[in-house]
Specification:
Aminopeptidase
């Protein structure tokens, strides 16, 4: 299974992936959102198409702030979920963050999202929360102490 990442070639399609995947959350928490609003909110981010065997199956969006890389969005279409793509995408985000000399990777995720389990599995910890979201961080490039 070959998973690759490329700068998004079609931001409208990327916005539609996000809207389709997040529709249930938007309906519950932000009913005014649609694909056009997603595009507006994400067009200035660093957008990557996630490709499986040369077919675009998702999108990953990053934003850099000081020494932090914010994983703003990670979407994989339903037919490609539960195949390890999310784990590979997070590893790619870490690699890009380290290349940019970021010391942490952070994200915000709906508490009710099944993705919370993935993020915990790959080393993110909950920093804070509100009624809807967990704010999670994964330190990068931390060397073990005592060696």
């Amino acid at each position: 299974m070959k998973i690759t990442f490329a700068p998004s070639s079609n931001l409208q399609r990327a916005a539609e992936f996000t809207f389709e995947n997040m529709h249930a959350y938007y309906a519950k928490f932000a009913p005014e959102w649609n694909a056009a609003k997603v595009l507006e909110a994400t067009a200035n981010l660093i957008n990557y198409d996630i490709q499986l065997e040369n077919q675009t199956v998702g999108v990953m969006r990053l934003q850099f702030e000081k020494s932090n890389c914010l994983l703003r969005d990670l979407q994989v279409i339903p037919m490609a979920q539960n195949k390890g793509i999310g784990t590979v995408a997070i590893a790619e985000a870490e690699k890009l963050a380290l290349k940019a000399k970021a010391s942490s990777l952070t994200l915000r995720v709906f508490k009710i999202s099944p993705a919370v389990l993935l993020y915990k599995k790959v080393g993110f910890v909950i920093d804070s929360e509100d009624d809807r979201f967990f704010n999670m961080t994964k330190p990068l490039g931390v060397k073990p102490t005592g060696f």
